Amino acid sequence: MALETIEIQDKLTETFGENVFHFNQEKDVFSFEVAADKITAVILFLKNDPILRFHFLTDLCGVHYPDNEVDRQFAIVYHLHNWYENKRIKIKAFISGEKPEIKTISNIFLSSNWMERETYDFYGVDFIGHPQLKRILNMDEMISFPMRKEFPLEDGGRTDKDDRFFGRTIDNC
To answer: Is residue 169 part of a domain?
Structure first.
């Protein structure tokens, strides 16, 4: 018998109640939101449940929503896959923009280690309990997080660029 999205939703709401919400079917991916403080419990449940069996973490990433209210300015997005039924799900957990932090899932899925490091590197999200949370692609000396919307698109201090070559000045000749 094929695993149906209503079965996933029913099992989640039965176990976690109001901590899982905004269920939605987007093409072939079933998505929902989770309260950030329940993310490890929900992911562990999805992995270990004998019917659901979401044993594969496809992706983990961050999204910055600077115009949202402060407690929903960052989203951590998890994509899980059930290979037995070829079913995919997307989970979003929103976190605060003032102190972006969420529990690590590297103890549930070892593959999340580098994904969490990349999300930290680009968004500054602190994954609590991560075994080695440090920059993975950017320089260690970098003090900003380049995927945040407030990060400048270019360096205003550069002297090797001539704006005339980029159409940024109007020549009055």
So the answer is: no
